[in-house]
């Protein structure tokens, strides 16, 4: 091989490695709904769900510098055989925020619009708590037809609109800020 061909081959190999590492980094960021369980309690269905949050490095860096992050849990209950234009029985967006408080050196998680939150010493503990939905009222049993089958749909995403104004343009343009689980569907047993 001539020296020119060697340098081109080296360049191609280096670019391939860089692309593979970048793809791997993006594959590790994102959200996924790992489990959802619904049970009857006091005349309604109650939801317990677990979400894994794999935030990208730029998002974690912003969090560690005190930028509050708002996560939206979009919850729907629909008939299994519903047409696309048919209304959902439940179509709600539950909003949670996670933020770092530098003076107390604590992470705080709370459901909006409440300002009362839970404090955590580590970022990982706060993120785990953020992904743990426990005993959330979903729908009254009297609204479900016993002869119909229903499904629960959950989507979780980072709300870019809630970021501080100077960060929004970058968040719109960079894929590392577009974090979402996509829709996950679970059969609803009632």
UniProtKB/TrEMBL annotation:
Residues 1-27 form the signal peptide. Keywords: Signal. It comes from the Bacteria. InterPro entries: DUF4390. This is DUF4390 domain-containing protein. The keyword Signal applies.
């Amino acid at each position: 091989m001539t020296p020119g061909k060697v340098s081109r081959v080296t360049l191609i190999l280096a670019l391939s490695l860089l692309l593979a590492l970048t793809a791997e980094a993006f594959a590790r960021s994102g959200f996924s709904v790992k489990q959802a369980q619904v049970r009857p309690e006091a005349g309604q269905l109650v939801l317990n769900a677990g979400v894994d949050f794999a935030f990208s490095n730029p998002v974690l860096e912003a969090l560690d510098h005190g930028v509050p992050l708002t996560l939206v849990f979009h919850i729907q209950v629909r008939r299994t055989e519903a047409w696309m234009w048919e209304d959902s029985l439940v179509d709600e967006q539950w909003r949670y925020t996670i933020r770092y408080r530098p003076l107390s050196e604590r992470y705080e998680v709370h459901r909006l619009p409440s300002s009362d939150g839970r404090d955590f010493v580590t970022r990982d503990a706060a993120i785990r708590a953020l992904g743990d939905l426990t005993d959330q009222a979903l729908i009254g049993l009297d609204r479900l037809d016993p002869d119909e089958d229903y499904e629960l749909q959950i989507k979780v995403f980072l709300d870019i609109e809630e970021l501080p104004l100077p960060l929004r343009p970058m968040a719109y343009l960079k894929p590392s800020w577009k974090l979402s689980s996509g829709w996950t569907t679970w059969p609803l047993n009632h």
